[in-house]
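Lab notebook, bench 4. The sequencing result for the construct came back, and we need a structural model before the next group meeting so we can plan mutations. Quick request posted to the team channel:

Model the 3D structure of this chain.
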Amino acid sequence: MAKKKVLLTGASGSMGGEALKELLRRRDKYDIVILLRPTKQEKRDFRQYENQDGFRVVWGDLQNPDDVLEAVNGVDHVLHPAAFIAPAADYNPSLANKINLGGTENIIVAIKKQPNNGDDIRFVYVGTVAAYGDRLPPIHMVKVGDPLKPSVGDFYATTKVAAERAVIESGLKHWVSMRQTYIAIPNALSLIDPILFHQPVNTHIELITKEDAGYGLVQTLEAPDEFYGRVYNMGGGPSCRVVYKDYLERMMRIFGLGDYRKIMPLNWFALRNFHCCWYDDSWVLNEYLGHWRHSLEDHYRQVEDAIPWYLKLGARMAPTAIVKAFMKRMADPLKWIENNEEEKIKAFSGSREAWENIHDWHDHIHAEPGEEAGRNKRMASEDYTIDDMRELAESRGGQCLSTEFSGIGSKLKWKCGFGHDWEATPVCIKAGHWCPECAPPPWDYDAIAKVDPLFAKFYYNNHDRNEYQKIDFLYCPNQ
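Done. Here's the predicted structure in token form:
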């Protein structure tokens, strides 16, 4: 039996790197193609594979349609976790758009150029939890179908949402999108970045280890046809759930840095406008892929094992005042207050007054990891009607203008509360996408919430009905 050929993008990343390891374990079943930029680092790391049987390295760029076509030619599966991620994406939104959206569009075009219009190729796109934006308690449980609302200034999220829409509406016969949660890696020092303080301390996180993320991606190769044509949430399950302040506490303890509350005052952290959540429906994907293998405790052990002895010793010997001074240099919310950066203050805290009302550490909403609500696996082939589509549109403050329903994958005409018209498949709308003209950038959520009842249900969780902010461009990292 001839082996299937698999194209993997992003093999130098955390998820892609683990996926490559898993593919190498399955070389008896799959030939491997990887598309990589010819940087010095990647040339050094991957040249060993160039002359191996059943392994092909295409040195190129997702932004180049010819390179992408060369990589896609002759493959049976495309696994696409590659992305230009935050915080780098916030510095260069144009490049983020070219890589995340443009690169994905190049793959779609290349697949359609294959025999039979690419109908025999399975395309797996990796989306992001950042698509849901701010989901603080009590709305921290998330499911596919919730409105998408990337946080203000999060160009990584907006470009990934646009790319997912392109995949859903591509007309490809076999596509799937997996909205990946925070991938926890053993190198905890990678978290030492100003973005550490952009996250509210009561953020609920359902993480996944990079091993389980990569394993799950490769497991899609074994999935049945019914798996395709859908959007899934990809997390590590109930055993991987944690609240951010508890995560900070454990990490500081692992590094021997003492009480995190004495090192990082509460008003160094944002009050809103980040992302992460607990997935109410990540079990659906696990039933297909069986990728729930590691727990939160497994991740903590990985971190502890990865810390060099000299770093452990140095951290334990460092005076609290020095550690605090080091961390303070990265506390963006504090800098925004000091520099009177009003738009950033408004986006991440609501107002200067709200920031001033932050007291020292106190109890935040905390929930123990639990079971998901309901296990009724909904299939993409469910029997919907035009009345269902009208009801869905009304929930978003708009209309379904079509009079006939010919299937979940056939485009219908829609109108949003501002009167914008567009066409989209029901599967796209049911996955949480709505009006492409209203989608950020710019971010005009206060206006949208006034005409979109379903969006408002989530937005007014921590926004006042009388506040207003419209943002075209907001650099979150310090300049």
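The longest helix spans residues 93-112.
Will bring this to the meeting.
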